[in-house]
Amino acid sequence: MSLLMSQFADLEQQRMALEAQLSVVKADLDRIGQQLIEEWLANGVQNTTIHGRCYYKRIDRYVTKCGHISTALIVERLRDCGLGYLCQESYSPQSLKAAVCEIIDEHGGMDAIPIELKCVLNIGETVRIVSRSGA
């Protein structure tokens, strides 16, 4: 076996070991992050700075059509709800998400979403802790 092949095999083994470690670290981060979010919500914490980094809650929203629903039905429901401007023959998923997020933000939360859309869309939020360089 050549020296180059031996080096390659060693690096491949090292990569696999590091990926396994990274999977454990990610799982721990997810678990602890969820605990922190609950604690922050209970105590009204928005962010904190530690070790020179600012940690804060980020809310990511998702809006997708339900798997069994046709695009034509989504378009029909958008028109029924006064959002026909979003669609012609179909709709842009990004525009749909933006419109739904606008309804949520400007009209009182998830309850403001028309029932016609709730029936055909998966709408939700994920909250996680992220960080940026602290100032």
What does this structure look like?
With 135 residues, the protein is α+β, with helices and mostly antiparallel strands. It has 2 domains: 3-45; 56-128, no CATH class. Helix content is 51%, strand content 22%. The protein has 4 helices and 3 strands; from the N terminus they run H-E-E-H-H-H-E. It has helices spanning 3-43, 71-80, 93-106, 115-118, and strands spanning 47-50, 53-65, 121-133. The chain has a 3-stranded antiparallel sheet with strand order 1-2-3. A hairpin with a 2-residue loop joins strand 1 (47-50) and strand 2. The longest helix has 41 residues, at 3-43. The protein is flat. The termini are far apart.
Features:
135 residues, alpha+beta, three-stranded antiparallel beta sheet, 51% helix, 22% strand, flat
